[in-house]
Write a structure and sequence with these properties.
The chain folds into three domains: 77 residues, no CATH class; 160 residues, Rossmann fold, CATH 3.40.50; 68 residues. It has 380 residues and is an alpha/beta fold. The protein has 13 helices and eight strands. The radius of gyration is 24 Å and the shape is globular. Helix 3 packs parallel to helix 5 and helix 8 crosses helix 10.
């Protein structure tokens, strides 16, 4: 019988996963690191183990959401952490849990929306006619939304977009559906996502619902737990929406045909109301005051001819303390943190922005001008 893994085993596995760039920069690993935090609140671990985990967190830099990898390496670690009690709300984000959404010009041309009242959940999608009875998910196919929109027009659907995951992705579908009572049909098409089985999980959600832990009954996904939905919201979605299962279908003509069929059979607005749980939104604001970091300050020099960024650290009295260089802004920043050269969060955030700007200046050839670092304290 295989020995049950303890927290140190899981940290060792996570260190190996973090050596893989696409894993280190993926939301899946960020979620798992969150769960580590929950477990560490309940279990005693050595200072060495905490330091090892801290180094993984420092290296992590989320640049993309789930890619549907098969296998998804962080998932077994996450499952083991869940057994230890590491179930953290996905909406409570740690220092690395910040998805970065990069929209391609094709998405922008297609009309991907920004901040507005509906849809209530942010994401990569195209909004059509809000009064249409049809919502469409193309699962793992990123190109289908634009192709369908170009041929069908926007008047025949309310919203169309991709869904890669069996948890957060489905949660967004549910909230955007139940917050629009016009939507009565959900067409699920495109190639299903490997490992996550988002499409199969959606069908299972409609057919079977969830258990008391909000795990989708019958889902083949690896983490089909809807942490950010109330049971009442899930049941409302199941009652409001008819699911059209076209999983695997990428024929634009057939998808449009089914869309028109749904429009023709529209039963009208759903007449039941639901109270939707909302997470607090806070608008970013200018700091009331800036305070000098007692650990010193930095001067940044990008050298395009060497393809390197040089970072000089000075003590508060202006004495040069150390020079760090490299090609990856994330590695430079993590080295700064590891060596204790920054002590304030606002200074660390500033440094991260400037390193990324310096890197982009080398990539695209524009001159780099370093912004003023936090200096003398300002009165609010």
């Amino acid at each position: 019988m295989e020995k049950k893994k303890d927290i140190n085993d899981l940290i060792s596995e996570t260190e190996k996963i973090a050596d893989i760039e696409k894993c280190r920069t993926c939301q899946c690993l960020a979620d798992t690191l969150q769960e580590f935090g929950e477990v560490l609140k309940k279990q005693e671990v050595s200072a060495e183990a905490k330091e090892r985990l801290a180094r993984v967190i420092e290296r992590a830099k989320v640049t993309h959401n789930c890619l549907g990898c098969d296998p998804c390496l962080p998932v077994p670690v996450s499952n083991a952490l869940a057994e230890m009690g590491g179930v953290a709300p996905v909406s409570v984000c740690g220092p690395v849990c910040k998805p970065i959404l990069t929209l391609s010009p094709a998405w922008e041309r297609a009309g991907v929306r920004g901040k507005f009242s509906w849809p209530m959940e942010q994401g990569e999608y195209i909004v059509g006619a809000e009064s249409s009875p049809v919502a469409i998910t193309t699962l793992g196919n990123d190109d289908l939304p634009t192709a369908i929109t170009e041929k069908a027009g926007r008047s025949n659907f309310a919203i169309i977009g991709k869904t890669h995951t069996e948890n957060i992705g489905i949660e967004k579908i549910v909230k955007n559906t139940i917050s629009n009572s016009h939507i009565r049909f959900l067409i699920i098409c495109g190639k299903d996502t490997k490992g996550h089985a988002a499409g199969q999980s959606l069908v299972s959600l409609k057919d079977n619902g969830v258990n008391q832990d909000r795990k989708i009954i019958g889902s083949k996904g690896q983490r089909p737990v809807l942490k950010n939905l109330e049971l009442s919201e899930i049941e409302h979605f199941r009652t409001q929406t008819h699911v059209i299962n076209l999983i695997g279908t990428e024929d634009v003509g057939l998808i449009i045909q089914q869309t028109m069929f749904c429009v023709e059979k529209n039963p009208g607005k759903f007449d039941k109301a639901v109270s939707i749980k909302k997470v607090q939104h806070s608008e970013a604001k200018e700091p009331t005051r800036l305070v000098l970091d007692p650990s010193g300050f930095f001067i940044i020099y990008p050298k395009k001819e060497e393809n390197k960024i040089y970072l000089e650290h000075y003590k508060t009295d202006g004495t040069l303390n150390e020079v760090i260089y490299g090609t990856d802004p994330a590695l430079i920043a993590s080295t700064v943190v590891e060596q204790g050269l920054v002590s304030r969060l606002d200074h660390a955030a500033y440094l991260g922005r400037e390193l990324e700007k310096a890197y982009l200046s080398m990539c695209y050839g524009f001159p780099y001008v370093q912004d003023s670092a936090p200096g003398k304290e300002k009165e609010p």
